[in-house]
Amino acid sequence: MSRRRIDVVGPGELGADDQKIWRELRAASGAPANPFLDPAFTAAVGRVRPRAAVAVLREDGFPVGYFPHERGVAGRGRAIGLGVSDSQGAVLREGIRLDAHALLRACALSSWEFDSLEAGQDPFLPHATEELASPVVGLGAGFRPYLESLRRNSPGFLKQTLAKERRLARQVGAVRFVYDDPDPGALRALMRWKSAQYRRTGRRDRFAQAWITRLVELLARSDDPECRGVLSVLYAADRPVAAHFGLRSPTVLSWWFPAYDRAYGKYSPGVLLLLRMLEAAAADGIELVDLGSGPARYKESFKTRDLRVHAGAVVRPGPGGALYRLGREPVRAARRFVRDRPELARTAARTLEELGRLRAR
């Protein structure tokens, strides 16, 4: 009978052997190579979040699984990078049976919250309270077949998009696209536009949180082919009009932080950028672009299918678990109530935008 042990270490304590085994386990799972579940992403979060940790599962001394997480007050745990990570869960050898409560106990966690748990995470799925659609664009056959399917399925959308690109070139200046732009000025512009968008729509400004800004800057400098940032920029007359900062592995690109200059909003520059980015990504070996969960009309037009992700929390009995339920369950219930009622969701969005405008005055 094999002996199992769970060791909890800091992300920086994982060596090259652990990284290799982690990636081999991910590859053997058959799941998309999402960069958010790569050890390099956990290591980057560990550099900006001091309470980040990894539980290493060992059988007879050999690693058979990794569980990245963060630990907060009263043992309240969260997925690594919660709030900005688009794929979450544990990385386990096939056939490993794991009890979620026992895992949390070994990590000294009273709860563990997730909002983008990937499919196939059997130890945690019974604790999910929501299933969300995460639209993706399949590019495995290349960009040309994808464009043909887009032309068949959304002919009006594609025609309008290409017409807006021609109008942008005619009225503003020559349009060019850079898929992997090293310009730090373009990244700063993207952050300004995104912050303004968050405030305008009444959402929490993620770039007002120092750790998120530092994480993006850190990943922008990474040269790890398994997990690195890609800054894509659309220029008109040599001025950036839209940009996107995403995270990529060799085969998956995650649509992460898109934004545009509102002065050029009538040309839909963000949509133009996404179309050109899909073309460049396909040429660069990307087989799947994950647009992330959350409603957006343009995602419905671009997607080829949906993946399923889950939100919820594992909560252990006891004072810490009770504290989590008291603080988070009403919020989650209210969010589900609104999301399941489209008209109410639209009203809530309009209210948030109005509050954002009032705060901006």
Protein described:
The protein has 361 residues and is α+β, with helices and mostly antiparallel strands. It folds into 2 domains: 4-132 and 308-341, Aminopeptidase (3-Layer(aba) Sandwich); 140-286, Aminopeptidase (3-Layer(aba) Sandwich). Helices cover 41% and strands 26% of the residues. It has 11 helices and 13 strands. Strands 1, 2, 3, 4, 5, 6, 7, 8, 9, 10, 11, 12 and 13 form a 13-stranded mixed beta sheet that branches. A hairpin with a 2-residue loop joins strand 9 (228-236) and strand 10 (239-248). Helix 2 (39-48) packs across helix 7 (210-220) and helix 4 packs across helix 5. The longest helix has 21 residues, at 319-339. The model is unreliable at 355-361 (pLDDT under 50).
What secondary-structure arrangement, pairings included, does this model have?
Blueprint: E1 4-9, H1 16-29, H2 39-48, E2 52-59, E3 62-71, E4 76-79, E5 91-92, H3 100-106, E6 111-118, E7 128-138, H4 143-153, H5 155-171, E8 175-178, H6 184-200, H7 210-220, E9 228-236, E10 239-248, E11 252-260, H8 269-283, E12 288-290, H9 297-302, E13 305-315, H10 319-339, H11 342-360
Parallel strand pairs: 4-6, 11-12
Antiparallel strand pairs: 1-2, 2-3, 3-4, 3-5, 6-13, 7-12, 7-13, 8-9, 9-10, 10-11
Helix pairs in contact: 2-7, 4-5
